[in-house]
Design brief:
Blueprint lengths: L8 E2 L14 E4 L18 E6 L15 E7 L7 E4 L8 E2 L12 E12 L2 E5 L7 E8 L15
Antiparallel strand pairs: 1-5, 2-3, 2-9, 3-8, 4-7, 4-9, 5-6, 7-8
Length: 156
């Protein structure tokens, strides 16, 4: 986490203001080390479990009607002070906002995941790209503001 690659630039980040985030659960994935974690989730990736904490389990009602969910999570292991990053240890650098890196001022990750099943407080999805134990911020059904509401999945 503290390694700085060639040509990367850090800043002294201001003290965070409390945004009042409440973690609604925990994400369980096969990856415990960043080097093993996929760079971006794939719909054919391994099944991962979103463990929803009480009192938020009731908020899952109706989510089973969607094929995909947007998963928002807190990248708690990432640096928050990089403004220029050097992905892949090359000489090419990019500003943090031009990358999907977990190293961000506000380390919020988001991925569109395939919904596999829901069983009580457990939501099974495919397509994640985060470490085991990552705090879960929110879930949203896959729906664009400019398109109609996603139709329910067929029964069966």
């Amino acid at each position: 986490m503290n390694d700085i690659r060639p040509h990367e630039i850090t800043v002294t980040a201001p003290e965070p203001n409390d945004a009042g985030l409440t973690f609604i659960g925990k994400i369980h994935t096969p990856w415990d080390d960043r080097k093993d974690c996929p760079r971006q989730g794939r719909p054919d990736g391994p099944e991962c479990r979103l463990e929803i904490f009480e009192p938020w389990v009731a908020a899952l009602k109706g989510l089973e009607n969607y094929e995909s969910v947007e998963v928002l999570y807190w990248l708690d292991k990432g640096r928050r002070d990089l403004v220029v990053q050097n992905p892949g240890h090359s000489d090419k650098t990019f500003g943090t906002f031009a990358l999907r890196s977990p190293m961000r001022p506000n380390p919020i990750g988001t991925v569109l995941a395939k919904l596999v099943s829901i069983d009580g407080p457990n939501v099974i999805v495919r397509g994640l790209d985060c470490l085991n134990g990552t705090p879960l911020i929110d879930l949203k059904p896959d729906r664009c503001a400019f398109s109609p509401k996603a139709p329910p999945k067929p029964a069966g």
